[in-house]
Every structure is written in C-alpha cells, then in structure tokens.
Specification:
Blueprint: E1 10-17, E2 21-28, E3 38-46, E4 53-58, H1 78-93, E5 98-106, E6 117-118, H2 121-128, H3 138-151, E7 157-161, H4 171-174, H5 180-184, H6 194-208, E8 215-221, E9 225-231, E10 234-238, H7 259-268, H8 273-282, H9 285-290, H10 296-301, H11 305-329, E11 334-338, H12 339-344, H13 346-355, H14 365-369, E12 383-386, H15 391-404
Parallel strand pairs: 1-5, 5-7, 8-11, 11-12
Antiparallel strand pairs: 1-2, 2-3, 3-4, 6-7, 8-9, 9-10
Length: about 400
Amino acid sequence: MPDLRRSAGDTIVVLNAGSSSIKFAAFACDDPHTTALERLLYGEIDGMGKAARLLAWAHDGKPLPGSDVTALDDTPQAYEQGLQMLFQWLRQLVPGRRVLAVGHRVVHGGVEFVQPVCITPEILERLDALSPLAPLHQPHNLAAIRVVAKLAPTLLQIASFDTAFHAGQDWVMQAYALPQKIRDAGVKRYGFHGLSYEYIASVLPTHLGLQADARVVVAHLGNGASMCAMRERRSIATTMGFTALDGLMMGTRCGNLDPGVVLYLQAHMGMSPTEVENMLYRESGLLGVSGISSDMRLLEASNEPWAQAAIDLYVNRIARELGSLAATLGGLDALVFTAGIGEHSASIRRRICRDAQWLGVDLDADANEAHALRIGSVGSRVSVWTIPTNEELMLAQHALALVQDGARL
C-alpha cells in the first residue's frame, strides 16, 4: 500500500453528496503557489441511513485499510454520522495534514451562481430556494454543507455548480417559448453535469489534439444521463433543461416528456403534484420501463423482454438527441463517452455508434470491447473515444483557486 503518512501539509477534501451515498476525495496541495493537485485517496460512503460502508482507495486504485463495513443508524442524523466517520478516518489515515477547504458539488446554481463561491449562511439560504429544481440532488448537497459547518464552523467550504459550464450558451439555446414574465423569473434551460463536461473539455487537447476545438459531443451516461455539444471546448447545447429531469432517459428519471402528460396525470388520473414528481424522478426511466431495476448491468444480464425493451428505448433516445446536437453543431467531428455506463458498457456504446453510422461514426469492435481510450476505427470520419470523467478534480481545482484568491481572509 502507498505511504500516505508523509510530512504535514494542506489538503483539500471534496464531497459529492447524494441521497444514499457520499463520494469523497482528498487532494494534497502542499505548495500554495501552484495549481497542481495530487490525489491522495478517494472513496465513497455507501448505504447512508442504513448499514453504511466506507470504501476507499489510494490514488493508484489500491484498497486502503480501515474501510470495513461500519454501522450507521437509520436516523435523520445519518449525514452527520457519516461525515463524522469520514473525517475521523481521514485524520487517522493522513495524520498531521490540515484540511484547507472542503469543496462541494451543488447541482443547481440557478441564474445567479455561474462561478464557484465560498459558502455563507446567506448563500446557503439562496441555494436552498433552488431545491425544487433538483429535488433528487440539491437537498443532499446542502445537507452535507450544513453538517460540515456544524462539525467545523471555521472551515472554508466552497460550492461548485453543475449548471455553470452551460451558462455561456446563446439565448436561443437556453430559452423556452414562454411569456416574458415567466422567462424573467428564471425559467430557462440550465443544463447539468457541468463539472463532468468541464473536466472532459480540459483533457480533450491531450487526447484529440487539434480536433479538441472542433465539433464534439460528449455523452455523460450514468444513473443520471445527458449529452453536451461543444465547440472550442465550450458548451453550445445540452439535453437537460430547467431541471435534471429533462433530456435522455435515465436510471429512474423519464427524460424528455410532453408537458401535456403531466396535465393529464393530474386532471384525469387524479395524481397530486407530489405523486407526479415522485413518479417522474424516482419511478420512471430504466426502472419504470423494465419493472426490474435502474441498474444497466442487471438489465443487460436479464433475459426478461421488458429489460431489453428498456435498453432499446434508452439507446433510441440517445440516438435521437445525438442527431439533434450534431445538427446544432453543423456536423460532428468527435464523440466521447464518459460516466458509469458510458465508460463501462461496451454493448451500449456499440449500439449507439451503430445508430450513428449516418453521421460518419464507425466503431472498432475490438477496441470497444477492450474499453480502449480510442474506440473508433482507423477509417471513421468521426473519432470516437471513452474518457473517464473526474468531477472530484474539478471541485478541488475550484476550491484551490478561491483559496489562492484570498477567500480565506
């Protein structure tokens, strides 16, 4: 195992808090005058509110000790218990290191927050007001911030926003055809998964060379899924809109939906707004169509007809959105897969690329099965890639930048 017990120095901890897990990473930043960050470790507290497991790995992927199953009571204090457990574990594993700041992923920044910010009680209140726009994520993001503030009141906390990467899109890409008073109230297309797209944009030159600034579509395919069209590594258009419910079919979310369906469910099927919200966010998508699971791995291994039907619909929606984004860009030069399904499902990549042959996509079957970095054939007019994302690094870089700008003073 690598030696993490080295000389004292500063550390930035980043947290990505969800409803049942807290993903974390710790980065060494021993030189205050550099932007270089060295990841010490990363991991996840899984099973929040149940019997939580703290699983962690060193920077090279080797398992770390002290990450056995740990009991965590099913109480409203689960987040506090979980984070207490995490910070105690960190102090034991990397003693002598000071936590300089904690960086948080916050899904929705609304109109106001388009850059990372240092958290204050007043800012936290404004972010809380955005929770109805991201009910699966925002409350948990903010719960982690509140717990850290309780555990370490003087510790600097910095929020980075999934919506920020898309903030520079043209008005026509963000606007809905609604009355001005509604648009002025902030009802527009925001887009999400921005931290993931920001990371992919930052490494495109390393992999694609001069093609990095060309017409690129990135497919972030995980339990949450979206796609982003980039030119000059900037967001031109994306599939998600006002909330993280829009666009592609996802694990439990329906994706693109005729708003008339919502009206029908309420007016003619007697469903309350809360019931509709719960169904669209938590009971739809792969889970809703298959009736089996939201986990693509389980569906791919299943022989049940509705499991295969769910996968068919999932791929079809991606193919349609890819065509739309390519049209927005005026063509396509590169296609990048990332996130859990995008990085690990050769079958889903193969089917998407098959449906995109008309765009000039040609897959190298062997490279795809081997999960290679470049999976397009030598003759493919559109280059095709699988690039692992790293949202945690973006959170740490944002936090370090604010610290270096004097945010601690």
